[in-house]
Design brief:
This protein is α+β, with helices and mostly antiparallel strands and 116 residues long. The chain is 28% helix and 47% strand. A six-stranded mixed β-sheet has the order 2-1-6-5-4-3. The protein is globular, with a radius of gyration of 13 Å.
Length: 116
């Protein structure tokens, strides 16, 4: 499976709330960094738990993929998160730089734009 296919599989699992499928896409030593979380999320279980908590807070959250660019095991994912916040519908642009190692997501650095 190509690096882009690994990332697409992880996104599909997230969309389907398939936590076991999502975990299967993650390296045991995955590192996830995202704005608003001061420390890196270390390890498969912690990344899955963070994702489950995010969905629990905003159950209608979805990710609309705009584009994937892949080269030499690094995948750039461009898209937009949408969810309902306290003030109504929120759209938040997102760019993630994902490194795939041994056929699994090994590092995920997420950059979020201003909420619209």
């Amino acid at each position: 499976m190509s690096a882009a296919e690994v990332v697409t599989s992880a996104l599909d699992a997230l969309r389907g709330r398939d936590w076991e499928g999502f975990a299967r896409c993650l390296h045991p030593d995955v590192v996830h960094r995202t704005p608003g979380v001061p420390e890196p999320i270390l390890g498969r279980d912690a990344f899955v738990a963070l994702s489950q908590q995010a969905v629990a807070r905003t159950p209608d959250v979805t990710f609309e993929l705009e584009r994937i660019v892949s080269e030499h095991g690094t995948v750039v994912v461009i898209g937009e998160w949408t969810f309902t916040g306290p003030a109504g519908k929120v759209r938040q642009p997102s760019v993630s730089v994902v490194d795939v190692r041994d056929g699994l997501i090994w590092r995920d650095l997420e950059y979020l734009g201003l909420q619209m």
